[in-house]
Design brief:
Blueprint lengths: L10 H6 L3 H12 L5 E4 L7 E3 L20 H10 L1 E4 L4 H22 L2 E5 L3 E3 L7 E3 L1 H13 L5 E7 L1 H9 L2 H15 L7 E7 L5 H9 L3 E4 L2
Parallel strand pairs: 1-3, 3-4, 4-7, 7-8, 8-9
Antiparallel strand pairs: 1-2, 5-6
Helix pairs in contact: 2-3, 4-5, 5-7, 7-8
């Protein structure tokens, strides 16, 4: 007659025997990451995530959109970490963001607390006075963001120097304020949103552009 060693309780089962508040503190410790979660997508490939930390923390196991984990853990992951879309133009970043929101589902999308996206996709007129206007798909995708991320508290808009800084510098003040106001109106429809921050890499904003942003209540920072 064979004998077998009694099965030992798994780590998960042991965790579930702990008091609720202690379990929550453990989840927060494990799932609050030291670095942003970067989202990217190569052509024809699924969305991928990258976290610049080696070795990755336990929480990284839950960062892929298809990962299955308990709802409380998912809420902690999505609400307490920064998700950054790796595209310099808002047109592309919002398209990728829309795909990401679809992958993680509406419940997790509502848990998101901190997003970093590109500057709004704009069209530039070729007349004597350069004017800017938001691309049609940009406004549509902004509304998808606002409608999906009801718990969002912080949005960072990233400007990576080059053409967009040149366009902002040379466009008419009226058209600049218009596209900023249109973008802000959609984002401010998220009742939980407390902060809109514009972070600039590889250049500086002119005083009129910076003043226009700050007049709308947006913070401005040089990228680090």
């Amino acid at each position: 007659m064979s004998t077998s060693t009694p099965a030992q309780p798994s780590t998960t089962n042991k965790l579930l025997t702990l008091p609720y508040e202690l379990r929550q503190r453990i989840y927060v410790h494990l799932l609050t990451l030291l670095h942003p979660v970067y989202l990217f997508q190569d052509p024809g490939c699924p969305i991928e995530t990258f976290i610049p930390e080696n070795p990755p923390p336990t929480g990284c196991l839950y960062c892929t959109p298809t990962a299955r984990s308990p709802p409380k853990q998912k809420h902690i992951l999505y609400s307490r970490n920064c998700f950054t879309v790796l595209y310099p133009a808002m047109q592309d970043s919002l398209l990728l963001l829309s795909s990401f929101l679809g992958c993680i589902g509406p419940v997790n999308a509502r848990s998101l607390g901190h997003l970093c996206i590109g500057f709004p996709g704009v069209e530039v007129s070729s007349g004597t006075e350069k004017t800017l206007k938001l691309r049609g798909e940009t406004m549509q995708r902004l509304k998808v963001l606002a409608g999906s991320c009801a718990g969002l508290q912080r949005v960072e808009i990233l400007i990576y120097g080059g053409k967009i800084l040149s366009d902002l510098k040379s466009c008419s003040h009226t058209s600049l304020r218009r596209i900023l106001a249109e973008t802000g109106a959609v984002l401010r429809s998220i009742e939980s949103l407390a902060t809109i921050l514009v972070r600039v890499y590889g250049g500086v904003l002119t005083a009129p552009v910076r003043d226009s942003l700050q007049e709308l209540g947006w913070a401005v920072s040089l990228g680090k």
